[in-house]
Amino acid sequence: MCLAIPGEVLSIQKEKALVNIMGVKKEISTVLVEEVQIGDYLVVHAGCAISKIDKIEALETIEIFKGIEDLNHE
Amino acid sequence: MNNIQHMFKDKYLVDNLVKKIQAYEGKVVNIMEVCGTHTMSISRFGIRSILPKTIRLISGPGCPVCVTPSYYVKSAIELAQMKDTIITTFGDMMRIPYKGNSLLHEKALGRDIRIVYSPLDNIQIAQDNPDKKVIFLSVGFETTTPIIALSVIEAVEKRIDNYMLLTANKTMPQVMNLLSSDKEISIDGYIYPGHVSVIIGTELYDKIADKYSITGAIAGFEPVDILGAIYNIISNVNHKSMKVNNTYSRVVSSEGNMIAKAKIEEVFEHCDAIWRGIGCVSKSGLRLKDKYVKLDAWKAFRISENEQDYDPKGCRCGDILKGKCLPYECSLYGKLCTPENPVGSCMVSSEGTCSAYYKYI
Questions:
Q1: Is the ipTM of this complex over 0.90?
Q2: B37 vs A68: CB contact, 8 Å cut-off?
Q3: Taking CB atoms and an 8 Å cutoff, what residues of chain B touch A55?
Q4: Fewest C-beta in 10 Å: which of A22, B202, B240, B337?
Q5: Phi-psi region of B207 (alpha: psi -120 to 50; beta: other; left: phi over 0)
Q6: Which residues are paired to A49 by β-bridges?
Q7: Residue B20 pLDDT
Q8: CB–CB of A2 and B146 under 8 A?
Q9: For the whole model, what pTM was predicted?
Q10: Residue B282 CB neighbours (<10 A)
Q11: Interchain CB distance below 8 Å, A72 and B24
C-alpha cells in the first residue's frame, strides 16, 4: 500500500506541519524528514511525510524522457 | 505542485513513450511489478492495453493485505469479539473474508472496530479510552512500518499502556530474492516500488541485478513514471545491461530515508513470516523487539501464529500473487469471486491484482 500524495507545506511547528493536499489542509508529522520549510513539497503517507520532492531532479527526469531513442535502434 | 505532478502526466511525453514502446520489435520481455499501488495505477491508466504482445507485465506480491495469511484475519476477529477491545485498522482489512465472516461483519454486529488513516491516530484513541485495549492491525511494507514504529515510540513516551500491535509487517528483500530465483516465472526486469524505495534506498536492487542478472527501474506513480520505467527496462534488456534506473529520483535517494530506517530498527526485529499463497519466507517479517513486548498483542493474548493457512477451495490467490497465473485464469474470478462478494484477498484489497483487473479490464 504505497499510496502517498504530495502536499505543500503551509506552516510548521515542532515535528509537525500543516500541508495543502489538493486543496485540503492537513496536519502531518514531519519526524521522518529533516529541515522542512514553508513552501516545500512533501510526499505524505499515512499521516507522515516520508520525503521531500526535489524540483530540480524532477525537471532532469523530464528532460531525460524528452530525449529518448527508438528502442530498436542499436 | 501541481506543476510537477502535471509534468509527469504530460500528454506529449506519454504519447512519445507509448509510441516508442509500441514500436518495439525485439524478443519477449517479462516485467514484474511488486507494488499494490503500481498494480492499481497500471490498470487505471490502461497501460497493459497499449503494450505490444512481447512485453508481458506481471503483478507480483505487492499488496501487503493480499499476502496476509488467513489466520491473521481469524485472530483479528477473535480479538474484536473480546470484551474491552478496540480494533483499529487500515480500511482494506475490513472486508477480507474468513469462513463467511469478516471484520466488517463483526463491526455490523456491534464490535468496536475503527478504520484509521494513520497509525499515529491510535495514540488519541488509546488516550480517550483508558479502560479499553486498543489493538492496531499492523500490516504493511517498508513504506508504512516506520510510521507504525513512530506510534509505538510515542505510546511509550506518553506512558500509554493500553496500546498494542498485532504485527504482520513484512519486508521486500527476501521475497524478491525468492521470486528472482524462480525459473518458472523468469523475470527480465522489475518495476521497483516507488515509496518503499523512498525508505529503503536502492542498494537491494543493485544486488538483485548482480546476483540474478535482472534489470529494473524504480518508478513513481504517474503515467510518465510507469511508462518511463517500462521503456528503461526494455532498453536495458535490449542492450543486455543490468543497470537499475532511478526514474523516481525526485523522491528516492540511493541511501533511502535514514531516519525512517532507524525508527524501524529501534522498534522491530526480523522474524520468519508466512506470505499467503507463497508460504513461509525466512526473515521476511517484523515483530516487536523485546523492549516493546508489552505492546505485543500476539504475546499478551497468547495467540498462536503457526496455524495452518486456510484457503477457500478453487482460490488461486497464491499463484496470482507470484505472477504464475492471471486473474481470469482462476475459475472463481468474476463468478463466485467479485468485489461485492470476494473469496480471496486479491479481490478484496483495493490494491489487489484481481480487484484491479475487475475494475479496469
A1: yes
A2: no
A3: 4, 250
A4: B240
A5: alpha
A6: A44
A7: 96
A8: no
A9: 0.93
A10: 12
A11: yes
